[in-house]
Sequence to fold (181 residues):
Amino acid sequence: MDAATEARLLDLLERQDISDCLHRYARGMDRFDKELLLSAYHPDAVDDHGNFVGSPTEFWDHFHAAHTKYNSGHHHSLSNISIDLQGDIAHVETYYLFESMNADGSLTLHGGRYLDRFEKRVGQWKIATRVCILEWNGKLREVQYQPAVTAALAGSGVSQRDRTDRSYERPLKVIRKLAAG
Fold:
């Protein structure tokens, strides 16, 4: 392999490690998995989420309590990840959508960006500084399904906000048969 190709492959690996870290953050938030969420941050990181500024552990405590109180479920969806690598530092911009089913039955959608300074320490890329920029938000109109449709859609499992969620199941198995018809 020539040096240029090797350099490109190493660059891709660095970018993939950063993307994997961002996805650990989102999954940790949505599954209420503290260990997974904290694995996305260096212990001395600072997170500024607008209504909160603090350490990763303080961030977890604050938002876990808020999501438990105000949301019955939510997703952090990530897209458009721009990574500016500069040695063992990377400046990363990630677009996000935060979709939530609220305790009052309403649905909300928030859009914004995470602006991150990642640092590679002891071979691991993690967030060192985060600023969360909220660009817009709003309520969604609820889609009404008939109870039979809702029950059928839940047949393969119901989302859990902990490690009992089927996404942790290894190996994943289908344990029911689809009715003929």
Q: What stands out?
A: The first strand starts at residue 41 and ends at 48.
